[in-house]
Amino acid sequence: MTRDPARDADDASQEPARDAMPAVDARLLVRDEGIRGYVGEFWRKTRSGELGSLPVVIAVIIIWTVFGSLNSTFLSAQNLSDLSQQIVGTGMIAVGIVFVLLLGEIDLSVGSVSGLCAAIFAVLNVLNGMNEWLALLVAVLGGAAVGLIQGFFFAKVGVPAFVVTLAGNLAWNGLMLQILGSSGTVNIPADSIVAEIYSTIYHSPAAAYVAAAVGVGLFLVASLLDAARRRAARVPSRPVAEIVLRTVVIAAIAFVTAYILNQYQGLPLALLIFLIVLVVLDFVLRRTTYGRKVFAVGGNSEGARRAGISVPVVRMTVFSIAGAMAAVGGLFLAGQIQSASQTSGGGNLLMNVIAAAVIGGTSLFGGRGSVWSALLGALVIGSIQSGMNIMGVSNAVQFMITGSVLLAAVVVDSLSRRSQKAAGRA
């Protein structure tokens, strides 16, 4: 029987394919190399522009070192505890900005929305006697509705988000003035739910340590369950040793924070609520279908549309979330000063919340960021302001320094994106 040369050549060409080793995920190779592999992976990511939270962590260390060396009061337990409360209002609003930035858009109305919702609560509860919980709910839903309206004009009508929210910044500020009326200021009683939520501190040392232990425990359980789910699906997962190391690092941060807070008065309720909100919204972004849709739309809206994602719905809901978080932040700020006035939501609030989101590591170009950026960025902004207030620096200089830090964060973001493009990762 005569063999076909063409068939023999074809069979020979297919032999290596049968014997070839299956592709191995690069992350598995890194973990097999141990510490050396992780160090190499860290430097590779750094060179390719994947900086993550590294710049802002370095910034916090530098800021605290400088101000701590200039004045020991800055690193005192009292100042750090006060700082943890003061960043909550700005941080809450910045969380909503993070969602918008993930789409590659901007919301210039969050300052006015925060003031409007604080005014709604104050007028309904203080002047009209509405139940404070109901007034609180109306204020938050009002913020969500405002965001939804702006999202509709952006997503459905096609008006650029910059224009829509710039117009909203003026319109909602005017509505706030109309609601406050001729008096211009409504004082919020110290026993109001808004004021109490901000000012309540759990003085028992056990409260801070228990909160730290619960947080660390939840992180460990969630990490182990995620690793088990990935192993069951036969996809790369973190080894137990890495999970334990991460848990130890987080535990150190959590318990040191609890110790510092207990050196003054204890655990502020406002900080606890802020951390819970961050955990919940981080889960929404990283562990739910909706969160993946947000990243997909921010990374490539046309590609997301072709994949079957309703881009307008995602955009409208994101702006609604930003409005709701602006309302929550505005209520915390109102509770801090125990009033809603014509200046609520004004001043440098808008600049601070945008700066917090960007400085914290959320990209202005969309598709990259985390809600924890709001905490880190707000910590940087709050630390700079606290340090300069202790040093007696004027507001004019504070504005210039904060603006310079924001510019530096944007430059780092731009350079990081350029490096990722050069490395083929953007």
Explain briefly what this protein structure is.
Residues 1-20 are annotated as: Disordered. The chain is mostly helical and 426 residues long.
Structure description:
The protein is mainly alpha-helical and 426 residues long. The chain has 18 helices and four strands. Helix content is 76%, strand content 2%. Mean pLDDT is 85; it is low at 12-26. It has helices at residues 5-19, 26-32, 35-47, 54-70, 77-102, 110-127, 132-157, 161-180, 193-199, 205-232, 240-262, 269-287, 289-299, 301-306, 311-337, 349-359, 372-391, 395-422; strands spanning 185-187, 201-202, 267-268, 339-341.
Q: Tags for this entry?
A:
mainly alpha; two-stranded antiparallel sheet; globular
Q: In terms of structural class, how would the helical and strand content be classed?
A: mainly alpha
Distance between the termini: 57 Å
Outline type: globular
Task: Supply Rg.
Answer: 25 Å
The unreliable regions are: 12-26
Number of strands: 4
Could you spell the SSE succession in H and E letters? HHHHHHHHEHEHHEHHHHEHHH
Estimate the helix proportion, in percent.
over 70%
Major sheet characteristics: 2 strands, antiparallel
Question: How many helical stretches?
Answer: 18
Helices and strands, with pairings:
Layout: H1 5-19, H2 26-32, H3 35-47, H4 54-70, H5 77-102, H6 110-127, H7 132-157, H8 161-180, E1 185-187, H9 193-199, E2 201-202, H10 205-232, H11 240-262, E3 267-268, H12 269-287, H13 289-299, H14 301-306, H15 311-337, E4 339-341, H16 349-359, H17 372-391, H18 395-422
Antiparallel strand pairs: 1-4, 2-3
